[in-house]
Amino acid sequence: MRSTTIPAARSTDGFTVQRPASLANDVYEAIYAQLMSLKINPGARITVDTLAREFSVSQTPVREALGRLEGEGLVIKTHLVGYSAAPQITRRRFEELYELRLRLEPYAAGRAAAKMTSEALDALTEAAGVMARRNGGADERVRYSQFARQDAEFHDLIVALAGNELIRESLAHLHTHFHIFRLMFHARVTEEALEEHERILEAFAARDSGAAEQAMADHIERSRDRLLPAFEGEA
Ligand SMILES: [Zn+2]
């Protein structure tokens, strides 16, 4: 019953026994990837039946996945209408998001630098750079959605190291990377971000809190400036 048509199912390497839980998870990941790569556009209708046929699965795992995505704010369920992709982030919300990130993430990076261990540094290095090395041949849109995921992990790991769970939960709840990576599809976004990640890593390697704080602030400001053109024409 396990379908082989679920595209780009992530992180299932090594699984030989497909339990229903992992099927549901594969479907979740497949829909997530479609949302992130704009195969399903912001605001677009999502039909359970269409997805079930596309993935060659029953409606149950699709409904389960959509329920989970709804709980995360990534899809919206409307009475009598059904599911649709979360709308594009507004400019105002975008600016608020970056203001919040600029308050919290440089602070977290500074704290993380002070607590840095060689194990944590290895994990961060992996999260910061795997993408560029591993998927050179992959479709650019797939690469892009994978980079978005990796960027989310990199930033989450830093906040986790800082040791304030409430800050971590608050940032995770915003699904920042989901929203910002849907704004613009551009190779520059990933290349420049990787260079900025390198500078953050250098500060971590030197256990330099001040430099880590500054490098993170620069990264977030540059990220904001790269994405702002997506709102051209809006007030
Ligand atoms: Zn980043």
Number of helices: 10
CATH architecture of the largest domain: Up-down Bundle
CATH superfamily of the largest domain: GntR ligand-binding domain-like
CATH class of the largest domain: Mainly Alpha
List bound small molecules. Answer: zinc ion
Task: Supply Rg.
Answer: 19 Å
The CATH topology of the largest domain is given as Four Helix Bundle (Hemerythrin (Met), subunit A)
Elements, N to C (H/E): HEHHEEHHHHHHH
Unreliable segments of 5+ consecutive residues: 1-5, 7-17
Report the biggest beta sheet as strand number plus sense, adding barrel if it closes.
Answer: 3 strands, antiparallel
Query: How much of the sequence is in beta strands?
Result: under 5%
Report the mean per-residue pLDDT as an integer.
Answer: 84
Shape: globular
Widest sheet, order of strands: 1-3-2
Structural class: mainly alpha
How many structural domains does the protein architecture include? 2
Q: Ends: how far apart?
A: 51 Å
Number of strands: 3
Question: How much helicity do the residues have?
Answer: 55-70%
Structure description:
Helix 4 runs antiparallel to helix 10. The relative contact order is 0.13. The protein is mainly alpha-helical and 235 residues long. Residues 1-5 and 7-17 have low confidence and may be disordered. The chain contains ten helices and three strands, in the order αβααββααααααα. Bound molecules: zinc ion. Zinc ion (ZN) binds at residues 151, 154-155, 193, 197, 219.
